[in-house]
Structures are given as structure tokens and as C-alpha cells.
Amino acid sequence: MEPRCARQETVLSYQEFLDNYLLPNIPVILGPALVQDWSAIRKWRRDGTIDWDHLSAVYGDSEVTVANCSTRDFSDQQRELMLFRDVVSLWQSGAGEDLYVKDWHLARQLAAPSGPALAPELSSRAQGSSEPFYTTPAIFRDDWMNAYYAAHTADDFRFVYAGPAGTFTPLHRDVYASYSWSTNVAGRKRWWLFPPVQTPLLFRKGREAHAEVAFDVRDVDPEEFPGFKHARPVIVEQGPGETIFVPSGWHHQVENLTNCLSINHNWCNSVNLPTLYRAMCAKVDEVEQALEDVRELLLRTSADAEAGADSIGAIAGWRREWTTIVQDVVEKDAGWHWTTFWKMVRHALSLEVGRPCPVREDLWPVTPDVLTPPIEFIRMRIQACADDFLKREQREVDHVAGLSEVLSDIQDMLRAPQE
Ligand SMILES: O=C(O)CCC(=O)C(=O)O
Ligand SMILES: [Fe+2]
To answer: Mapping DSSP to helix (H, G, I), strand (E, B) and coil, where does residue 233 land?
Structure first.
């Protein structure tokens, strides 16, 4: 028998969510009561189905990323940029049945570039009022990724997904093993969720065993993926208005059983910080292995220089160059690297200890203490990662510009007496 996914119809308190799902890192489906006040639930549906005309009229100008679910592109699907209006037109004409709008940063697109005072015309027109189309449920507010990105970048991890029945998202683990939560504004999805202990069963056999997981769990070649038949995913259907919590490091695949419109976030906090930290370390290892020949080249060049006059300078330069190359590739591949990771931690810790730091209240209001674990827990989690990082053989802390300053800020805050 397949393991079952927990369901909760009543709205959980933060403490219940922390104790029963966040800390044990297990999935749960939460009933529609959690999001009943969202304006998206009222305005984006008509008679229980998606109101494409309304969505196209209000958000049609928006540029969206569209995945073609019939065209595989390595571990993802082929993607292109389109106007949302054009995608809706295709769907309404009975075409585009393989097109799936993904990772649409709609909330950020509608926000003013630098705070609510500068809200452009589009923002109020598209929102229909200043009311946001949804607000993050309290249990998901302790989110270091979106807090940091809101305050320091023009990017975020807040998405809208929209696609017809049959579109899907192939098997994957979220970026650096972050959590996800995803609410179906309309439609039904099927989820396959694999606990981290089963991750080794998902890989292709052979030399590159750790590079590639199965693509589509509905069609896995048993010769190529011999472990897969032993995997026992949690399989669950998510209905309209329901929210799923996807735990850290769980691989998952998603199929739209009907036309679907959903809102989701990737997120992290002190609870999954160690998992994110280890995922970063693993990514760096993987990139270093892939770039082994570049390393050889740099080494050889520096040995030549060593034979000349400036030997100490050459060795230091070689290490710095190598670390920079690796970190650049890590960032290109997954969107962030050690500097992003530690700046995010510094931002979260600053807010925790009440140290001044930039905040975009309109995008990501500061999370009250009652919606986070106790400060001692947070300090402990950060300390453990920082201690490990400072012992790394690669010494990124010395070789990446600005990183030692970020780490010493963090250490200062960890050492400061608690009020
Ligand atoms: O809804 C989908 O198609 C994918 C969502 C997903 O992978 C996530 O929320 O992590
Ligand atoms: Fe995901």
C-alpha cells in the first residue's frame, strides 16, 4: 500500500504546523479554509471554473514563461516567452493543449518597482483595486528566501502556474531542497511525492548515476532506472481551494487532471536551513567535479608562474580564480551561490535580533516572532551551518570577495547577548 498524505480541513495554528509537518518534514494537504479570504479565489473563477476572459483582460499584457509539455529539454521541458493573452487565445481556440504557464512572477510584476508610493498605473488597473490577489497564509510567513529577495532584488520565488488538463511538471526537487507550498485556485492536480530516503531509487543506473533522475514517473524504463520499482511515493489528489505543503528535499511530479490555476512559493527558514546548506555543498562538489579540467589548466598555469618570480601571488590568484569560476557556474545553474545563501541568512538573522536592515513591507512584511521557531533554535541552526562552512577545505570564505564580511556580521549577531 502506498503511504498516505495527511489532510487538515481546519486552519492549523503555527505551532501545530511546526510540530506536525515542518519539523518532521512531511507533506500535508490543507483544506480551502486556509485561503478563503483570497481575492483570487473570488475573482479568478466563475461558476467554479477558471475565468480565462477575466484573467486575459486584466493580465494579458504580462510576459510569461510557457513550457511545452510534449517537448523534453534535458530534465525540464522546452520553454519560451509569450504574452499571457496569446496563450489564453490559443487555449480558447482549442489549441495549445501542451502549453503550461510556469514560474509566472505575477505578484512581483504588479508591485511598484521601489515601494507602494510609486505604484504604476498598471498596478492598480491590474489589481482592480489596491487589494493583492492573495496573501501568504500565516503558517508559511517564516520565509527567508522571499524576505531577502523582496528587500534586495527585483526577483522572487512567488509564482502563478496555469495550464490545461494533461499538462504536467516532470519529477524534480525544488531549488536547493527548498520547501514549496502550492494552492489550487481552481482545478485538480495529482502529486507524486518521494521522501528523501528514496532519492537514491530515482537515479539512472551507471556512470552518471547521480546526475539524472527519472523524468516522468508514469513512464519509467526499468532497465535504465532499476531502483524505481522499489520507490513508494505518496500519491495524492489536490482539489480546488486546497493547499499542499511540499517538504524539503522531497522529489515530486505534478499532473494537472483538469484545467488548473495555482499559486506557489519556494521558501526556507531555520528549520530546513541545514538541508539547504548540504544541498549547496553538494552542488559545489558536483560543479567542481564537472570542471576538473579547468582546474588542471589553472594549476598548470600557476605552476609555470611559480617557476618565475611571483610564486605566492600565483598560488593565491589560482585559488581565487578557481573559486570564482565554480561559484559563477553554481549561480548560473541554480540561481544562487554561497554569497546569496549567506546574505539571505544575514538578512533573516538581522530581523530576528532587531538589527536595522532594508525591508520592503509592501512585498514581504516582517514576520512576527509568533510565526517562527524560538530564537535559540534559530541561532543554533545558523551556528551549526556557519561552523561547518568556516571549516571547509575550499575556503570560499577567504576567496569570494565580500563573503568574510557577511560571515563575520553573522558571527557578531550570534554572539551578541539575547534580550
Ligand atoms: O504545479 C506544478 O505543476 C508544479 C508545482 C511544483 O513543482 C511546486 O510547487 O513545487
Ligand atoms: Fe516543485
So the answer is: coil
